[in-house]
Amino acid sequence: MKTPPRKASPVSTSQKVENFIRSAIYEGRLKPRERLIEDDIARQLGCSRGPLREAVLRLERDGLIVITPRRGTFIRDISPEDVEVLFSMRGKLEGLCVRYMREQMTPEKQHTLEKALHAMKEAADAGDEERFLQCDLKLHRAIWKFSGKQQLYQTLNFVMNPLFFMIARAYSTKLNAVDVAYANHAKYVQTILTVPISRVDREVEKYFNGIYRDLNKIVFHKPMPFVRMLDGQESDEAVGDSA
């Protein structure tokens, strides 16, 4: 006798509201420093203030919004100092994901990454920046998932990723055209698939450190700070830029 398939747990109203707001941030419909009008969202989704408040408090906990007494609720702004911390955290966390992924790598996983990279190339060839960002997200989500570590995946997907999407939308056009961004990602995928496992997390950190260095130079017009890598040695790029 077959066991009947388990039904998926229903999504609560509060979760639906949270997903709606997260998606609006991902898609750029809600921008940094923009005020979140809770009554408008409640009307739009046909929900009461209770579930909305629960969703807002979770989003505040995750650092996506800021609640200011007597002023209201706002989409978080991201300062240059925030960007520095986020890139440092992202490099370390994704480095861990890549290491775990490589330790249990399969041809199917490699094919998934190559397929996601191909989708990025198609978007780049079409000059479609929005589609490119979505394909970029899909590629990195696959890496996080293939780590097999649920806590890492959840931290990157629900906390770090919305903030990175905000940064990408704000600054990507100031850094590289999509064809250059694709070439950088192609090199990144080649690196994480081929570099010895003992060095792969360091290489991932160097990759994100390089993006942050470009942001400093091109967007923030600041010199690159001294950066120590995982083994305690400074990166060559950081030493050169700080000289």
How would you characterize the overall build of this protein?
It is a single chain. By secondary structure, the protein is mainly alpha-helical. Helix content is 70%, strand content 3%. A two-stranded antiparallel ribbon has the order 1-2. The longest helix has 26 residues. The C terminus is likely disordered.
Comma- or semicolon-separated keywords:
3% strand, 243 residues, single chain, mainly alpha
Could you give the topology of this structure?
Elements: H1 13-26, H2 38-45, H3 49-61, E1 65-68, E2 72-75, H4 80-103, H5 107-125, H6 129-146, H7 150-175, H8 178-194, H9 197-220, H10 236-242
Antiparallel strand pairs: 1-2
At a glance:
By secondary structure, this protein is mostly helical. It has 10 helices and 2 strands; from the N terminus they run αααββααααααα. It has helices spanning 13-26, 38-45, 49-61, 80-103, 107-125, 129-146, 150-175, 178-194, 197-220, 236-242, and strands at 65-68, 72-75.
